[in-house]
Amino acid sequence: MLELQNIGKQFDQKVVLENIDLTINNGEIVSLLGPSGSGKTTLLNIILGLTKMDQGKVIFNNNDLSNVAMKNRGFNIVFQDYALFPHLNAYDNIVYGLRNKKDIATDAEVKEYIDFLELTPHLKKKIGELSGGQKQRVALARTLVTKPDVLLLDEPLSALDGVIKESIKERIKSIAKEFNLTTIIVTHDPEEALTISDKILIINQGNISQFGTPFEIMNQPKNDFVKNFILRQLHIKRQNIYNLFGEKYA
């Protein structure tokens, strides 16, 4: 179980996060959802240990990680731009994190992750030869082979379209279920959050507006911000689809 207790953060005397309390059960997929500048990426970085909080605690399975270095937390992240090495092929990217930690995963376990993500035909390809969806799967495999206790994803679907996006969504859900892996996703897109998450944390101006299941968010919004943000973003998305393809697809 991951617990955030009274998390607070300021940058240049501006409050970015305030009194964030959150409990995430093992194996849950939770999306951090909100407009640009709401504090969701800062919260993700605090969980990872990349950003130091000003107050509060990060507790995982009853262990206080608040002052534990990022490399010792046992969490790992897939960044928005994948951060893959272009001079290496797909396989070498996947096993890169094992170079100095060979005991983390056996060859059989690495193969299991590769097979699970259907990457076997692409292992010898350089990164520039891969599609967006294939790059995302390589980034996921590279993270999974390190066996993180918590998987963090920063806008994992933002560069993907259509069928590929839906495929990666299903992969992420399958990973969380197959490996009972707590998964935290930053997204600005309500549709992504509603269709991939067990629970959604909606953040506005550094504060929690609502934390609940997709059903609760859609049918029992706690305030006008939640209702208006969700409906406005979904309307904008449908309008963009209509403008591109017509009413049939909107």
TrEMBL record:
Keywords: ATP-binding, Nucleotide-binding, Transport. It holds the Pfam family ABC_tran. SMART domains: AAA. InterPro entries: AAA+_ATPase, ABC_SmlMolc_Importer, ABC_transporter-like_ATP-bd, ABC_transporter-like_CS, P-loop_NTPase. It comes from the Bacteria. Coiled coil: none annotated. Transmembrane segments: none annotated. Residues 2-230 form the ABC transporter domain. One of its GO terms (molecular function) is ATP binding. PANTHER family: SPERMIDINE/PUTRESCINE IMPORT ATP-BINDING PROTEIN POTA, SPERMIDINE_PUTRESCINE IMPORT ATP-BINDING PROTEIN POTA. This is ABC transporter ATP-binding protein.
